[in-house]
Amino acid sequence: MKLDCKGANMVKRNPTAFLKEEYQKIQAEGREWVHRKLETPSETQVVVDGQELLMLCSNNYLNLSNHPHLRKRAIEAVEKYGAGSGSVRAIAGNMAIHEEWERKHADFKEQEASIVWMSGFIANEGAIPPLVRRDDFIISDQLNHGSIIDGVRLTKTVRTIYDHVDMGSLEDRLREADAADPNGEKRILVITDGVFSMDGDMSPLDEIQKLSEEYGAMIFVDDAHGDGVLGRDKKGKGIVDHFGLQGKVQVEMNTYSKAMGVVGGAIVGSQDLVNFLRNTGRSYLLSGSQPPGVAGAAIGSLELLDPKSELFIPVVEKLLDNCNYFKNEIVNIGFNHPITSASAECPTAIVPIICGENEVATKMSSRLMEEGIFALPIMFPMVPRGTARIRVMMNAGLTKDDLNLALGTFEKLGKELKIF
Ligand SMILES: Cc1ncc(COP(=O)(O)O)c(C=O)c1O
């Protein structure tokens, strides 16, 4: 121990020792996110750490991220506007291409207006806090995404959780909020994922909407995994369209990092909502705007999904066919866990293949890799104990041969690891 200038004892402190210690603990407990290196574009056939693999774990559901039209639009935008935007939107970084993106996004979603953020995560973090004040209420599904949890944490409001997709539990929370606000002066915000990323199950948005309307609550739905996948007539407009709820779900968050094949978040809804968020969303106001190349590519993906455009391609239909075939077959070959079976009935692109204990899922993933398939395990504590799984993400670019190859390998390894 040393003495400071006033003669008091000073503790000897190592300000960074925790970095190595905690990292080593993460490694020792098998919790390290080992990053694999992609040496090719994100496509259905990839090279990962030098090995050719069939990609089954990207969110590139519509196989658009390396599509020639998106590449072309990105290059054109860079040539016209440069590599960066130079500022935040509200100061000097609002380019014509950002406004075009927002207009086309709102049109695609059949809504009045939209506002683009750097990512879906940042949109959730930035858009949730201004919607509620200190004494209002947030009621959030138990399994909502971490970015929603962080957005909710940034508020000072009263926060409650309802049991996952349980409408009785949601109504209990709504009743409690209602009872605590006899004059109806407070805001109630109900937040849910549209599609939950661990099980691929859908939120019952139609029932949430009815209950919320009854109690005068506002709904915020994060459609990160429904966008480009769900919707009527295979148009991929998302969960709000799936239930025909345009105009009745007040706030919808979308991301361009998944089915749309690029990156970026968007909030879509009324013009009032967008005007309000442009002036109150801190992560919008205080962060540089999207590089033009990203905006160009994002517009490119919207053009491909527009049935009125000569560029239209039926990728959503292809994705849904693949989902349907793969989900049915995976259950037929013996992976017949309730979660897997339930997902066979809902048209999302996430297929949890339940293996059981963590070690079995880890083994399955490494054996899949040896057999030429890239699919990663999701384990306890991210999912309940005993439901460790390989989470397959379906892709419109996979051919029947690819799917049959994957199914044959899962069948062989399921038997080898004694899963069924
Ligand atoms: C449900 C959900 N919401 C939000 C996000 C964040 O989206 P982004 O990748 O655009 O930041 C994700 C990404 O994993 C997600 O799964």
What does it look like?
The longest helix has 18 residues. Helix 6 packs parallel to helix 7. This protein is α/β, with parallel strands linked by helices. The strands form four sheets. It has a seven-stranded mixed sheet, sandwiched between helices. Strands 3-4-13 form a three-stranded mixed sheet. Strands 12-15-14 form a three-stranded antiparallel sheet. It has 15 helices and 15 strands. Strand 8, helix 7 and strand 9 form a beta-alpha-beta unit. Helix content is 40%, strand content 16%. The radius of gyration is 23 Å and the shape is globular. It folds into two domains: 132 residues, Aspartate Aminotransferase, domain 1 (Alpha-Beta Complex), CATH 3.90.1150.10; 237 residues, Type I PLP-dependent aspartate aminotransferase-like (Major domain) (Aspartate Aminotransferase, domain 2). The mean pLDDT is 95. The protein binds pyridoxal-5'-phosphate. The site of pyridoxal-5'-phosphate has 13 residues, from helix 4.
Task: Give the arrangement of secondary structure elements.
Elements: E1 2-3, E2 9-10, H1 17-28, E3 45-48, E4 51-55, H2 68-81, H3 96-108, E5 113-117, H4 120-131, E6 137-141, H5 146-153, E7 158-162, H6 167-179, E8 188-193, H7 205-215, E9 218-222, H8 239-242, E10 251-255, E11 265-269, H9 271-280, H10 282-285, H11 292-304, H12 315-332, H13 338-344, E12 350-356, H14 358-370, E13 373-374, E14 377-378, E15 388-393, H15 400-416
Parallel strand pairs: 4-13, 6-7, 6-8, 8-9, 9-10
Antiparallel strand pairs: 1-2, 3-4, 5-11, 10-11, 12-15, 14-15
Helix pairs in contact: 2-11, 3-11, 4-5, 6-7, 12-13, 12-15
Pyridoxal-5'-phosphate is lined by residues 119-121, 145, 147, 193, 197, 222, 224-225, 255, 257, 265.
